[in-house]
Each structure stands twice: as C-alpha cells, then as structure tokens.
Amino acid sequence: MLKPKFNQKYFVNKHSQLSIQCLACKKTRTFPIEILRERQQAIKVKCSCEHTFTIDIEFRKHYRKKVNFLGRYRLATASVEEVKDCTVADLSLGGLSIKIINDESIAEHDELIVNFRLDDQAHHEIERKIQVRHIDQKDRIGGEFIDLESNDPDGPLLF
Ligand SMILES: [Zn+2]
Predict the structure, then answer these.
(1) How many domains does the chain have?
(2) How many angstroms does the Cα of residue 75 sit away from the middle of ligand 1?
(3) Are residues 112 and 100 in the same domain?
(4) What separation in Å is there between the alpha carbon of 41 and the centre of ligand 1?
(5) Residue 150: pLDDT above 90?
(6) What is the pLDDT averaged over residues 104-132?
(7) C-alpha torsion sign, points 104, 107, 112, 118
C-alpha cells in the first residue's frame, strides 16, 4: 500500500483557486480560496474515498485580487431592509473594498455587513463583516474582516 505523504505544499495562484489532489484515489478538486481564508496554514482534507491527509498552503503575503462582484452592504447595526447595492472591487486575505455611490451615512470604524456571490462554479455566497478602514463617501470603502467564517476552521475540508 502506498504510504500516505503528508504536508504536500500548495501555492495559491493568481486566479485564487486551489487544486488539491487526493494521493490515494487521485481525485482532484478545486476550491475557491475565499472559503479557505480563515483556516490554518495546515489543512486537514478528508476525501470521499476515506483517505485523510494534510496539506500546507502558502499564501502570498500581499495577496490581493481584483474582482467585480455585485453585492450588498449595510451597517451592522442597521436592519436588513436598509441594504444598499455595491460592487466588490477587490478581495485580499484580510479584507475587501467596495465601490459605492454617494453614501454619507458611513464613517471610518463603522462595522458593515457585505454580501456577494463568488464567480466560482458553485457561486458560493459570502457574507462578511468588515470594519471600515478607508472611506471615500463618493465612491469607495475599504475594510478589514472582523468576523470568522461560519464553518469550523479546524474541521477537515471535505471533498
Ligand atoms: Zn481519495
């Protein structure tokens, strides 16, 4: 029997996809990096063939991805009906920035809820909480993530 190899190293490419191959059955799956964001560098993976292995992920330090996703945002303290449209302009490991249109109600240090869908095949829906770090009320807000992914970051990644 093939001895399982541990600590395969993966690098996140500029398309923000991570292709992971199971060493036992050779099945490959691709994950959008956004769903791995809050995980540890060493990730446990459990394949549908029952093989379990660990991989290391090396994130580029200043990894930042330009995107163009339609989204919605609101103040964390506002009701759900008070959402406004935005465009997510870039995503990085620590935060994101959105394009807005003339919004005087947002100030630095405010906490916002931002929703958007990824352009991966499954169109994963993302909801993140950010704290506003930079703001130009006419057209752009930059924020840092202050939430955690709702899924268990220490649980195995399932194929
Ligand atoms: Zn497998």
Answers:
(1) 2
(2) 43
(3) yes
(4) 21
(5) no
(6) 89
(7) positive
